[in-house]
Design a protein that fits this description.
The complex is a heterodimer of chains A (about 100) and B (about 775).
Chain A lengths: L7 E5 L3 E2 L4 H10 L4 E6 L4 E2 L1 H16 L4 E6 L1 H9 L13
Helix pairs in contact in A: 1-2
Chain B lengths: L2 H27 L5 H20 L3 H18 L7 H23 L5 H15 L25 H8 L14 H8 L6 E8 L1 H5 L4 H9 L3 E7 L17 E7 L3 H8 L7 E8 L15 E2 L15 H11 L1 H27 L6 H14 L6 H28 L6 H24 E3 L1 H18 L3 E6 L4 E3 H22 L3 H6 L6 E10 L2 E8 L6 H10 L11 H6 L21 H11 L3 E7 L3 E9 L4 E9 L2 E6 L3 E5 L6 E4 L3 E6 L2 E7 H4 L13 E6 L5 E6 L1 E9 L3 H4 L6 E6 L5 E5 L1 H8 L15
Parallel strand pairs in B: 7-9, 14-23, 18-20
Antiparallel strand pairs in B: 1-3, 1-4, 2-3, 2-5, 6-8, 9-10, 10-12, 11-12, 13-14, 13-21, 15-19, 16-17, 17-18, 19-20, 22-23
Helix pairs in contact in B: 1-2, 1-4, 1-12, 2-3, 2-12, 3-4, 3-5, 3-6, 4-5, 12-13, 14-15, 16-17, 17-21
Classes of the chains: A alpha/beta (about 100), B alpha+beta (about 775).
Chain lengths: ~100, ~775
């Protein structure tokens, strides 16, 4: 990992990540910029395309920042939805933690 | 909101959609190949079909369905929109409009015509060249024909309705049977690009894709290329787009129906791939992810918020909700507008979002208001204007020094009322576009019947004029257009021989000119055959055989009642009632019509109409103790006659010499029977007026009181028609003043008795 100086933060995703949550999620992620991030998606029961967009944009930014961005746990619904919409999150699954 | 109200809204929207449809088709006809134009046309038919389905308007649904299917072929580039194809489509648009009208107002449609068009459309959809042969459908159907997922409305339409009309049951289901036996299901490639509106309206791409995945075996690629970094993104904008390969036996329609409610808010491309190829994504090197079949986890919605549940139900109960959707469109547009405005603040607004804002704000700026309410408002403002004038008058009468603050206040009040009046009149002002569009249809139909090739060019469709004028404009215009195509334009052979293009051009333009609207109708036909017109006029005793007429005077003969140069009486025109009726209706609107014609080059009809029938700028005059208003537009100049300029002519006639030319002097008081003997011209004022045919008359009145804008009150509606009088108004002193029908008075001065005049409204 590139920068170990910054603290590792974690973020637990809300159960419902629908259209209305996209702004909130975006805000939460913005606040966590500059840190390694571990995301717990185990509680997610429903996730919409907008929130996946925000998460993927986050992954992109984190990569640019040379910080880690990983999902620690994911729910079945979260996995299925990402598979359904063709978004591959395999590379974002935390392996070394 | 009860069902009837929703239905009414549906029909209002139908009108808009039909207008959209027609203008789109005309743009295509002009060579516009913008996919958005095709989409707009498709959308129009599609939404009419959707709404009609909800109200069980089966005729409409079945026709729209066939129409839509053919348009879809154009949309997916399977059918080239050639002139011939568009001809069929324009006719179909006309039939669709007829069906809509019938659904709303009752009546019947030309069943043979719609059945014929359905056959032609079907043939086009199958790739046959128009005009369609009535051959049975070949088996080699396009993928489109695989199987219709929405047979319900079509099947329902096949049942005879009250009028015993059995629509041709056109269904693609017939083709599906054999193909279903095949083991390999047809594969399709779907490119799905949501616009931001999709999300703004509460649609969820994941749900659409989920529904899509249920149609068959699917693999997907998500294109994230446009996804910006986190800090530059708008969390509510659409960045993802998808390419989906799906194998399904449910057909293209089933795929489209998944996107039915999101269709306008996304770009959707549907390509039928060869079976066995598309599904594994060999066509392009995009990494396709297979989508798991078991998506049951996504169906559990334990804590789903209200909005999502609603949205879910929308998809499930699609058919039932169509009506409500239609009805809520207006509200939705407004909501979108505000959302879009909010979204605009974000610097990262994508192009799609901008598009959204434009569309939404265009739609959000209008409201529908009952015409009655506007009319009531206009009436009230009219009263206000009168009342204000009365107030001013009584203040002036009681306060002769004229410098008091009351006077200042009154002046401001006067300005305000005038402004209010102008703004209120602007509410009822509408572009002439709908009327012009109706003319396009007339041209098509007449061209068809006469076998001529005609192109209608319109200009200035957005010129606005009061709705009352627009409503009365359609009839005379239709007459004139018919005449222009039927008589004006030559047959194709003749045109060729004259070195013109085979296609005749009829041009309709509208523009504002000095407070009036001027509508010009020109054709590039043969022009008026003056010899023939002259001969005809002589035969009909309209003119003396040796009359010396200018070209212009001969041209204007065609406006005479009972005049027609058509050798044969045709179905279209040539009954000899055309142009004089036109002239009369134009005059009834307070307008004037003129013709100029160049042999071999065509004719130009110019109509000049008032912008409104509610107010009028007039000159207030006194005649034999009565107050009259003379429409200002009729007056050329006013003069104080000199005794030396007055010349007697015959027993009672008098002429006035103005700048070395003589002009008949007409005593208005005498004509209207206000006085028994002619007044002395030297004691009065002469108003030089322009009358029909361009001739001038000097109207004698006793005195001029002033010039002001008056509110027109119809005499017919409130009392009864009075010969020589166009309407009435109420003056500042509370008295009723009559508005002079200048043309009627001039005609009366020529010896035609007044009571035969049929001029109905304000004279111009």
């Amino acid at each position: 990992m590139a920068s170990r100086k910054a603290a590792q933060k974690s973020l637990s995703l809300a159960p419902v990540l629908d259209l209305n949550e996209a702004n909130t999620l975006h805000g939460k992620l913005m606040a966590l910029r500059g840190n390694d991030l571990v995301i717990d998606a185990s509680a997610v029961e429903r996730v919409g395309a907008l929130c996946v967009q925000v998460l993927m944009a986050g992954a992109k930014s984190w990569e640019e920042d040379k910080h880690s961005f990983a999902f620690s746990k994911v729910s079945d619904a979260f996995t299925k939805t990402t598979q359904l919409i063709g978004v591959n999150i395999d590379h974002l699954m935390a392996k070394e933690i | 909101m009860d069902m009837n109200e929703i239905k009414e809204i549906f029909f209002q929207e139908c009108e808009e959609q039909l207008a959209e449809l027609e203008s789109g088709l005309l743009r295509l006809n002009d060579g516009d190949r913008d996919p958005e134009t095709v989409n707009a046309v498709f959308r129009a038919v599609h939404s009419i079909k959707g709404g009609a389905g909800a109200f069980a308007l089966d005729d409409l649904v079945s026709f729209a369905h066939v129409f839509e299917t053919t348009l879809d072929c154009v949309r997916s580039n399977k059918l080239e929109p050639t002139q011939d194809v568009l001809k069929v489509m324009l006719k179909s648009a006309d039939v669709l409009a007829d069906l809509t009208n019938v659904a709303r107002d009752g009546g019947s449609v030309d069943q043979a015509r719609s059945a014929q068009l359905i056959r032609e459309l079907e043939a086009l959809a199958k790739g046959e060249a128009p005009p369609a042969a009535e051959a049975p459908a070949p088996k080699a159907a396009t993928p489109k024909a695989a199987s219709a997922p929405k047979p319900a409305p079509v099947a329902a339409a096949a049942a005879p309705n009250d009028e015993g009309f059995v629509p041709v049951a056109f269904s693609f289901d017939d083709f599906g049977g054999e193909e279903e036996a095949a083991i390999e299901h047809p594969a399709y490639e779907v490119i799905f690009k949501p616009k931001s509106e999709l999300y703004t309206k509460g649609n969820e791409a994941t749900l659409l894709l989920r529904d899509l995945s249920r149609l068959g075996e699917m693999s997907i690629h998500c294109n994230m290329d446009s996804l910006p970094p986190l800090d530059q993104m708008d969390p509510e904008a659409a960045y993802f787009s998808w390419k989906v390969s799906i194998k399904t036996d449910r057909g293209e329609d089933a795929i489209r129906s998944v996107f039915e409610f999101a269709e306008w808010d996304c770009e959707l491309e549907l390509i039928a791939a060869d079976a066995g190829e598309g599904a594994d994504g060999e066509t392009e090197e995009l990494p396709m992810q297979p989508v798991p079949f078991d998506l049951s986890a996504l169906d559990e919605e334990p804590h789903a918020p209200l909005g999502v549940v609603e949205e879910e139900e929308q998809i499930a109960a699609a058919q039932a909700v169509t009506a409500a959707q239609t009805a809520s469109n207006v509200v939705q547009m407004a909501a979108n507008a505000s959302r879009a405005a909010a979204a605009d603040k974000g610097a990262a607004a994508a192009a799609a979002a901008q598009n959204n804002a434009q569309q939404a704000s265009a739609a959000g700026q209008t409201i529908r208001v009952d015409l009655d309410r506007v009319d009531r408002l206009i009436n009230l403002v009219g009263e206000l204007v009168i009342n204000q004038a009365m107030l001013s008058q009584s203040v002036i009468e009681n306060d002769s020094n004229g410098v008091s603050s009351i006077n200042m206040g009154l002046e401001e009040l006067q300005q305000l009322t005038r402004e209010i009046q102008d703004s209120v009149m602007a509410i009822r002002a509408q572009p002439v576009k709908p009327v012009f569009q109706r003319m396009a249809r007339t041209v098509r139909e007449i061209a068809d019947i006469t076998g001529k090739s005609v192109r209608l060019v319109t200009e200035g469709e957005n010129t606005e004029v009061d709705k009352t004028v627009i409503d009365k404009l359609a009839e005379p215009l239709t007459h004139m257009i018919r005449n222009a195509v039927d008589h004006g334009l030559e047959m194709p052979e003749k045109r060729l021989a004259a070195g013109k293009s085979v296609e005749g051009t009829v041009k309709l333009t509208a523009k504002h000119r000095s407070g009036r609207i001027v509508i010009e109708l020109s054709d590039d036909g043969a022009g008026i055959n003056r010899e023939k017109v002259r001969q005809k006029a002589i035969d009909n005793d309209l003119i003396a055989a040796d009359a010396n007429l200018s070209d212009e005077e001969i041209d204007n003969l065609i406006f005479h009642a009972g005049f027609s140069t058509a050798d044969k009486v045709s179905d279209l025109s040539g009954r000899g009632v055309g142009m004089d009726v036109v002239k009369r209706s134009i005059q009834a609107l307070g307008g004037r019509i003129n013709i100029s014609s160049k042999p071999g080059q065509g004719s130009v009809f110019t109509m000049s109409l008032p912008l409104t029938l509610a107010v009028l700028d007039g000159m207030v005059v006194t005649v034999a103790g009565q107050t009259l208003v003379v429409p200002l537009t009729a007056i050329v100049e006013t003069l104080q006659p000199d005794a030396a300029a007055i010349h007697s002519f015959g027993a009672t006639q008098r002429l006035i010499s103005i700048r070395n030319s003589f002009c008949p002097l007409v005593d208005v008081g005498r004509i209207l029977n206000f006085r028994a003997t002619q007044a002395n011209p030297v004691e009065g004022v002469a108003l030089l007026v322009e009358s029909e045919g361009g001739g001038q008359r000097a109207l004698m009145v006793d005195a001029i009181q002033g010039q002001r804008q008056v509110v027109i009150k119809s005499l017919e509606a409130n009392y009864t028609h009075v010969p020589g009088i166009a309407a009435a108004t109420i003056l500042g002193d509370g008295r009723v003043a009559l508005i002079l029908d200048v043309d009627a008075v001039v005609a009366a001065s020529r010896g035609q008795p007044l009571h035969l005049e049929t001029s109905l409204a304000a004279a111009g």
